[in-house]
Every structure is written in structure tokens, then in C-alpha cells.
Specification:
A 6-stranded mixed sheet has the order 1-2-3-4-5-6. It has one domain (about 1-115): Transcription Regulator spoIIAA, CATH 3.30.750.24. The chain has helices at about 40-55, 75-85, 100-105, 110-115, and strands at about 1-5, 10-15, 20-25, 30-35, 60-70, 90-95. Strand 3 and strand 4 form a beta hairpin. The protein is globular, with a radius of gyration of 13 Å. Helix 1 packs parallel to helix 2. The protein contains 4 helices and 6 strands; from the N terminus they run ββββαβαβαα. The protein is of the alpha/beta class.
């Protein structure tokens, strides 16, 4: 992790078919996902999230899925862990969700948890 001026911390995890960029600014975590979040890549995202969690109190999470091509149940599980770590009234949002990823989220019923 490399600290960035202005009170924010950036963390990056990159694999062959997946990249996660996390930016912790004060108590808001912005997560940008690229590629395929599946059984292989989800442990890397979880580890990165745990690292960010250790840096400070996270009171809001925004997950940008603009470049996410696919999400498996393992990826949904990581997002659920992130959501459940927040206080009930905290902001958790998924933005720029593609139609294919949205269909997976809706088919699994996770839209009732995240949206």
C-alpha cells in the first residue's frame, strides 16, 4: 500500500484477469473492480479489504463495477463480508453495474442486500 497526500490511502491487487483498486479517504472506501471477480481472485480482494479495514474506521463503501465483467458467488461473498462489516445505517453502494453483472446479482437475490 502506498499512502497518498490528502489523508487517503491507496491499495492495489492485480492478477491475470482481475484488478482491485481501493482508496480509503477519511472513513469512506472506494473500490474499483476490473475483470473477473471469482473463486481465484476473491481472496485477493478480501485480503486487500482487510488491510484497508486495519487502517481506520470505514463508515461507507462505494464499489465501482464499471469494468467488472463477471462476479461469482465467491465474489458476492466478499462484497457481503464488506457490507456486513459496516454499521446498519452506513452507506454501501454498487455503481456502474453492467447488465451481465446485474443479472447475476439479481438471480442470486443479492440485490435485496446491496440495493
Amino acid at each position: 500500500m502506498t499512502p497518498v497526500a490528502g489523508g487517503s490511502d491507496n491499495l492495489v491487487h492485480e492478477e491475470d484477469n482481475f484488478k482491485a483498486d481501493l482508496e480509503l479517504n477519511d472513513s469512506t472506501l472506494k473500490v474499483s473492480l476490473t475483470g473477473r471477480l471469482d473463486t481465484i481472485s476473491s481472496p485477493g480482494l478480501l485480503a486487500l479489504y482487510r488491510e484497508a479495514e486495519g487502517k481506520g474506521n470505514i463508515t461507507g463503501i462505494c464499489v465501482d463495477m464499471k469494468n467488472l465483467e463477471y462476479i461469482s458467488s465467491a465474489g458476492l461473498r466478499v462484497l457481503l463480508i464488506m457490507r456486513k462489516a459496516l454499521a446498519e445505517d452506513s452507506d454501501f453502494s454498487l455503481i456502474n453495474v453492467s447488465d451481465s453483472v446485474k443479472e447475476i446479482i439479481e438471480t442470486t437475490g443479492f440485490d435485496t442486500i446491496f440495493c
